Amino acid sequence: MKLKFLIVPIVTGIAVTSLNSCRKIEEDGQTVVTTVNGGTTTTTENTILSGKITSNLTLKANTTYKLRGLVYVTNGATLTIEPGTKIVGEADKNGALIITRGAKINAEGTAANPIIFTSEKPVPKRGDWAGLVILGKAPVNTSYNGNVGVGEMEGGINDADGNGLYGGNDPADNSGVLKYVRIEYAGYAFLPDKEINGLTFAGVGNGTKVDYVEVAYANDDSFEWFGGTVNCSHLIAYKGLDDDFDTDNGYSGKVQFGIGVRDSQVADVSGSNAFESDNDANGSSTTPQTSALFSNMTIIGPMQAGNTTPINTLFQNALQIRRNSSISIFNSVFIGYPTGLYIDATKGTPTDNNITSGKLVFENNILAGMTTPLKYGPSTSSPTSFTIAALQTWFDGAKNTVLGSTADVKLTNAWAPAGTTPNFSPAAGSPLLTGGTFTHPLLASGFTPVTYKGAVKDGNDYWYAGWTNFNL
Question: Bridge-partner residues for 375, per DSSP?
Fold first, then answer.
């Protein structure tokens, strides 16, 4: 028998005499019998998953499952994860869960019973396991072995069967559901610039549902999208290492209501940003072009008001839009980065062309407490007539605001002390309480029109509380 994964039950509270009832767990041809005394004793199973999952499988609530190495869901199978389930990466095994093209993950937790991916170590740290990777069949602008519109997932994920490939021709491709999910301490540096993030989407289509997902203490980016069209809402990037929200290779989905929070002392050697966006690594004009839309984001950088502790010098920008990306951001607030918005045209097709063509929009946003609110890096290989003065005129004309201090935003308690839960609600007098607008044509569909800026309406809006964990 060829076993695709191994099941190891650990049974507690079992008396070996008086055997009255039993339960069978059967997966991939292997049967394990768990015996319970008198029908009143509960059974706790710790199940190891490894290799390939090739048929539909349900992970049960109140059970801890362990990822041993790279675990692939293949063959069009659906992995269903019940609310309240915990999945851990086995210590020092670089465990990852990879949903391959055509397969699905159905991880729909609840606010009271979220699904948790985390470390198994008693004293966890970032990078204890590799992360969650979802691969789909939606359009991307990459090529692999001469196949245009197909990409190879970085991080050593691809195998001889092509289970690390992504991309296709179906914008509506469905990779399943992520809802009320926490991902903690993930991220793995396979090689420089070839890492596994906390949560990676690659070629994921807009038939996939993603809502209420927290990535905490990632060892690389918290969220990264390689192409695809998937729409997401209510995302939280908490104290990651590299970038909070990284978009490239033609990602064109829509994201609304997101929070990013940084640790002032923790940044990546590559330079950490809240947003980093490329069309591709070369800044080419390959299509589909990266054109994701974001609205109602609250981004809390490393520089607190009145904080005399120096920040990590590797922190860079609230937003670095570069390499011919044309993403657009609306109704959002960015607080406490050395540089606010950096339009970087230094590599490839000049990014500023997307401003002058109207494809790159930055409208109705607030930059607060930045040393340098706006920065422009001109192209040296294909110089344009664009200037920092033109950038300022464009910025001002799109109803954006610069505030001198992080305190001017008047958030209730965004920089909560370690071990306590932050409060991202705008306090009385905050400029975030009003002013949200959705009149731009890019926001005509796929967004919930609200009258406020940022991710949180007011002190009665606690969508980020309960299912999350900020006390790690």
Answer: 342
Please state, in angstroms and rounded to a whole number, the distance separating the CA atoms of residues 468 and 223: 16
Burial class (CB in 10 A: 0-12, 13-18, 19+), 191: exposed
At a CB cut-off of 8 Å and minimum separation 6, what does 145 contact?
none
The structure's pTM equals 0.90
For 287, other C-beta atoms within 10 Å of its C-beta total 12
- 328-347 exposure pattern, b = at least 16 Cβ within 10 A, e = fewer: bbbbbbbbbbbbbbbbbbeb
Q: Do residues 100 and 135 touch, judged by C-beta distance below 8 A?
A: yes
Give the whole-angstrom CA distance, residue 64 versus residue 87. 6
Give the DSSP H or E segment for 389.
helix 388-397
Q: What is the pLDDT of residues 26-84, one digit of tens each?
A: 333 233 333 344 454 555 555 999 999 999 999 999 899 999 999 999 999 999 999 99
**Alpha-carbon distance values, 116 to 242, 307, 310, 332, 465 (Å):** 22, 33, 33, 28, 15
- Could you tell me if 373 and 318 are in contact, meaning their C-beta atoms sit under 8 angstroms apart? no
Nearest to 338 by CA among 361, 321, 352, 319: 319
What are all long-range contacts of 26-35, with beta carbons under 8 Å and residues at least 24 apart? 27/57, 28/3, 28/4, 28/54, 28/55, 29/1, 29/3, 30/1, 30/3, 32/7, 34/9, 35/11
- Token pair listed for 142: 């990459």
Residue 235 has pLDDT above 80, yes or no: yes
Which of these, 296, 259, 261, lies nearest to 453 by C-alpha position?
296
Length of the chain in terms of residues written: 472
Domain boundaries, given as residue ranges, for the chain? 1-44, 46-443
What is the distance between the alpha carbons of residues 16 and 103, in angstroms, rounded to a whole number? 41
